[in-house]
Design goal:
Largest interface: A-B, 61 and 38 residues
Mean pLDDT of chain A: 88
Largest sheet of chain A: none
Number of domains of chain B: 1
Number of helices of chain A: 23
Distance between the termini of chain A: 35 Å
Number of helices of chain B: 5
Strand order of the largest sheet of chain B: 1-2
Low-confidence stretches of chain A: 20-30
Order of helices and strands of chain B: HHHEEHH
CATH architecture of chain B: Orthogonal Bundle
Oligomer: heterodimer
Number of strands of chain B: 2
Helix content of chain A: 55-70%
Structural class of chain A: mainly alpha
Largest sheet of chain B: 2 strands, antiparallel
Shape of chain B: elongated
Radius of gyration of chain B: 18 Å
Order of helices and strands of chain A: HHHHHHHHHHHHHHHHHHHHHHH
């Protein structure tokens, strides 16, 4: 009796909230805003738990367990079903506990949990089984919108991509999920995405990427520990002391598995310091090779600045020109020494660009940097911006026809976010240029997604991103804030 | 100029010094082509400042062609390094995926 009254009360509140947000009437539950969906879920689960507590003396043990399972399905999934690794169990339990679309993304969440369970024991991961799980995963629902596609669905899609060997797309999807707004992303999905990205970078030995990734996504002890370990392995001057590293490991999850990483970080020796340089061609060449031979991310921006300065001196002193003229005479050739010098300069800019893209930024302004290093950063930026601007110019907006292809919209958005992250990670001081370059296109595209394609979750993610990069004085900021609130 | 371009320096491919004459270049190239044609195992790789790289006939031909052009040759002379020891590599953490309960295939 009490249970029925509680459910009726929840339904009444949901109806009122739906009215408040213009969602009354005979609309399917999947059209409710995430806040309404979240409230419904919490209210019903809390109702079950309260009933279990209130009736604990009257109910038999079986009924009590059933009430607790209904009240805390997430705990049962995380602590029991996923670690057990029994195929299908996590899937059907999630579908049963999160019926229809009342609790948000029922199928995507079920696939996400099912894949995690299967991955525990490596069972039923053949291509056919995965294709079956991934069929029609990221698509519009029957109401024509994407309210049932949130972080868990995208994480499931990323897991499937990774399992099929397409790690590049998987990384982009995971990276978007870990940075999503909490209104559309459960913490479980964001933490999992972050953990996958960090593990992927560590498995490849790309500790410079790991370091950058550790500054994004939710605050977790895993991220704290892995960042500290990466800094030690890369030999950074800001690396944590032993006791701090051990403390962060003790607080992080999966300590048994990550003990190997801790041992490695503790035993990490400093990398060879580049030899002292004189301002001549031989020294510049030697320093270039010494820095190029270091693992990615070990060379610091200070060392790169020194390299750029040395090369600049070689150019300015005329040593390179004299060297080229001497070789031209020795080879009895007729090439233009100035043209060759220009080619060498371009090659050095490319070389510096490679090194800059792998190194960690330092809090220094553009004006303090040598010209060659600035040219390298400009070139990098030009490469990334040209792809970013090309992508954003091709985004549908205004009165463009609807495509009904949600998967493609998400993939394009993931690529855009990947490029913006590359730009802001490599040179944070230039991150505010992103809005100037593509802010208007993204705003129009998000508005089109919301109004025409009814891809409201995706539009919200774009508004959420724009909100973070729009200058407070910009004329579009008010529109972005309004749209962000509307799509939430 | 990246690792691959520096590793494919024609002087390294042909195992010559920057002072090699045109005749020495041709001789080294033809000798390597002949050895590759009969499958001599020792010439299928060469040392670079970034580790050992595979050598094949197309690489040797490209190296020969590059060194015949004086302009390209001086550029390659400039980017020739005598550092031959193996660079220190940063190995990955094999247990990374296991730490998140991922026991699936991890191929690229």
């Amino acid at each position: 009796m009490y249970g029925i009254i509680a459910l009726l009360a929840v339904r009444a509140v949901v109806h009122v909230m739906g009215k408040g947000s213009g969602q009354n009437g005979p609309t399917p539950p999947s059209e409710y805003k995430p806040s309404v969906v979240r409230f419904t879920g919490f209210a019903i689960r809390s109702g079950f738990l309260l009933l279990a507590w209130g009736l604990r003396r009257e109910l038999s043990l079986q009924w009590l367990i059933a009430y607790v399972v209904c009240g805390a399905p997430g705990l049962v999934t995380e602590l029991l079903l996923i670690p057990a690794g029994i195929p299908h169990l996590a899937y059907y339990f999630t579908r049963m506990m999160y019926p229809l679309a009342i609790f948000g993304e029922p199928r995507g969440r079920a696939v996400f949990n099912e894949l995690r369970a299967r991955l525990r024991r490596g069972r039923l991961l053949d291509a056919e089984r995965l294709a079956e799980l991934g069929r029609d995963l990221v698509r519009f629902n029957n109401a024509g919108n994407d309210r049932a596609i949130c972080a868990a669905t995208l994480t499931a899609r990323a897991q499937l991509d990774a399992l099929s060997g397409d790690k590049e797309h998987a990384r982009e999807l995971f990276a978007v999920v870990q940075g999503m707004d909490f209104r559309h992303a459960t913490r479980t999905a964001r933490v999992y995405s972050q953990a996958w990205l960090l593990s992927d970078a560590a498995a490849r030995g790309a500790f410079h990427e790991l370091l950058r990734l550790s500054f994004h996504g939710p605050y977790t002890f895993r991220r704290w520990f892995m960042r500290a370990a990466a800094r030690r392995i890369l030999g950074h001057s800001t690396a944590a002391q032993n006791w701090k590293l051990v403390c962060s490991w003790l607080l992080s999850p999966a300590r048994r598995h990550s003990f190997a990483l801790l041992k490695r970080a503790l035993a990490a020796k400093p990398w060879p310091v580049p030899s002292a340089v004189e301002a001549n061609l031989a020294s510049a060449k030697r320093l270039s090779f010494e820095l190029m031979r270091l693992p990615k991310g070990v060379a610091t921006r200070t060392e790169l600045a020194k390299l750029a300065e040395t090369w600049q001196t070689v150019f300015d002193s005329g040593e390179l020109r004299q060297n080229l003229l001497a070789r031209r005479e020795a080879l009895s050739a007729s090439f233009d020494a100035d043209a060759v010098m220009a080619r060498v300069e371009r090659q050095i800019v490319v070389l510096l660009g490679e090194l800059v893209s792998e190194s960690s930024p330092q809090p220094e302004s553009d004006t303090d940097q040598p010209l060659l290093l600035l040219a390298a950063m400009d070139r990098l930026q030009e490469d990334w911006f040209s792809e970013l601007e090309g992508l954003c110019e091709a985004l549908p907006c205004g009165n463009a026809h609807t495509t009904n292809d949600l998967d493609r919209h998400w993939r394009t958005w993931c690529r855009v976010r990947h490029l913006t992250r590359l730009l802001s990670d490599a040179s944070p001081e230039r991150a505010n240029w992103i809005f100037d370059a593509v802010g208007a296109e993204l705003l129009n595209h998000a508005a089109w997604l919301y109004n025409h394609e009814l891809a409201q979750t995706l539009a919200h993610d774009i508004f959420y991103f724009l909100l973070g990069i729009t200058p407070k004085s910009d004329v579009n900021r008010e529109t972005i804030v309004k749209n962000f609130r509307l799509s939430a | 100029m990246n690792h691959e371009e520096l590793s494919n320096n024609p002087f390294l491919v042909l195992e010559l010094t920057a002072s090699a004459t045109r005749i020495e270049v041709e001789r080294a190239g033809q000798k390597l082509l002949a050895q590759l044609a009969i499958g001599v195992a020792s010439v299928k790789s060469y040392r670079t400042p970034f580790g050992v790289r595979a050598r094949d006939e197309s690489k040797v031909r490209m190296a020969l062609s590059a060194l015949r052009d004086p302009e390209q040759r001086v550029l390659h002379e400039l980017w020739l390094s005598d550092l031959a020891d193996e660079p220190q590599a940063l190995e990955g953490w094999p247990g990374a995926f296991r730490s998140i309960g991922w026991r699936g295939p991890c191929t690229e």
